[in-house]
Amino acid sequence: MSILNREAFRERIIRLNCALDLERKAVGIKFLHTKEDYHFADAKPVTVPINYCVMVRLATQGKALKADGNNLACLAGARALGLKEIDAYHRSGQNGKKLGLYHDMPTAKRARDGMSYCDHQAFGIMVKPLEDYDSEPDVVIIVSHPYNIMRIVQGYSYYSGIQSAFKMTGNQAICSESTAYPYLSNDINVSLLCIGTRHKAGWSDQELAVGFPISLFRKIVDGVMNTVNIMDNNQKKEIIERKLLENEIDDLEIKYDYNYYR
After folding, report:
1. Could you report how far apart the first and last alpha carbons of the chain are, in Å?
2. What are the residues whose beta carbons fall under 8 Å from the beta carbon of 42, sequence distance 6 or more?
């Protein structure tokens, strides 16, 4: 990412934070394919085994961490991210059936085959606030309340239309649904989160996640900005306008009493 692109990248992060009421920081995910990549990655290595989804939660609070496959406490997450090989037992769906996630083996196998698992063999992964990146991450994850997730999808739809292939099972939410699937499909996905990450990472009952490849970041932010006037109500527009002024962004005229649904 050049200096010019880095400045434009960070300005879009500011625009996103002006347009949305984000209580958590947007997070960037970077696959570290080699030991050398891991060594030079600008983040603190974890010192004890940790769940990948907990790393994401810590990044939403400003922490920058990196981990290799041996330091991820949740093996399901390590497998979904391509940091650990998937064995035949898990590939067959037997583990999902044993855990009671599915009522019979054909359902468990179908669910397992439909879940996204990275087919690369990466050495590690870096997770840190999106604003801290000097080079482009691979995937962006935002965890927030449903209104913000809706606005992000509306921003996506402004340029790309309908995403007709959302993938969600309520299982492996951060690792598979929010990271692996957007990375593999090069498209956006919304996750309802899962019991594992809600307990381990401590998300609130009101939070959802959205993940998308970095290639969509510019259009999504621009789409959110371009739909502020037709989507948001006057109360939200007042807050958005104040934040835009505070950040000296003057290329969006806020129009009150102006919505497509009025």
Report:
1. 42
2. 64, 126, 128, 132, 134
Q: Which residue has the tokens 């990044």?
A: 59
Rg over CA atoms, the chain = 19
| pTM as predicted | 0.96
Residue 31 · residue 122 · CB < 8 Å: yes
Which residues are bridge partners to 143 per DSSP? 209
What is residue 104's three-state secondary structure? coil
**98-112 confidence digits (pLDDT tens):** 999 999 999 999 999
**C-alpha to C-alpha distance for 42 and 36, rounded to whole angstroms:** 12
Question: Which residues, listed in sequence order, are joined to residue 125 by a DSSP beta bridge?
Answer: 31, 67
Name, in order, each residue with C-beta under 8 angstroms of 202's C-beta and a sequence gap of 6 or more: 57
Alpha-carbon span 179 to 78, nearest angstrom: 12
- Backbone φ, ψ for residue 46 (5° rounding): -70, 145
Element (H, E) at 125: strand 124-129
